[in-house]
Design brief:
α1 crosses α5 (89-97). The termini are far apart. The chain has helices at 6-33, 43-53, 62-67, 69-79, 89-97, 102-113, and strands at 40-41, 87-88. The chain is built from six helices and two strands. It has a two-stranded antiparallel sheet with strand order 1-2. The radius of gyration is 18 Å and the shape is globular. The longest helix has 28 residues, at 6-33.
């Protein structure tokens, strides 16, 4: 018969509780920033949500977030799955909770710069 590992179970429950609590905090920051009630955040709304949340992961980027809308646009493009220039709550949670790798950010930036969708970037487009 297998032994019960109460400590491991308790730790798993604690981690789950922390994740749920963190998710609720992120959802509240999203809802507060969604001023127009559309269920999505524009670049300006995303900027205010990131400042409001003041996530530890983004702490070093906070000054850039506050002062540079272009920086926020890059963050948005990294999670904006449908390319509509807005961020859903699900995408916002992904931005905050997952490490965005540089390759994914670069791929999305290239996609955004490739206006005609031919896969080529011309110097005049940049």
């Amino acid at each position: 018969m297998g032994s019960l590992n109460w400590e491991a179970d308790r730790e798993t429950a604690r981690q789950h509780s922390m994740k749920e609590s963190r998710k609720e905090e992120i959802e509240k920051a999203f809802a507060k920033a969604d001023k127009d009630g559309t269920g999505t955040l524009s670049v300006k709304e995303l900027q205010s949500a990131l400042v409001e949340l003041n996530d530890e992961k983004m702490e070093e980027d906070l000054e850039q977030i506050q002062k540079n809308i272009g920086f926020v646009e890059v963050l948005m493009s990294a999670v904006d799955k449908n390319g509509d220039k807005t961020v859903t709550c699900e995408e916002f949670i992904e931005l905050i909770t997952e490490e965005l790798d540089q390759e994914k950010m670069l791929r999305n930036m290239v996609r955004d710069a490739d206006k005609d969708g031919d896969g080529l970037l011309l110097l005049v487009r940049l």
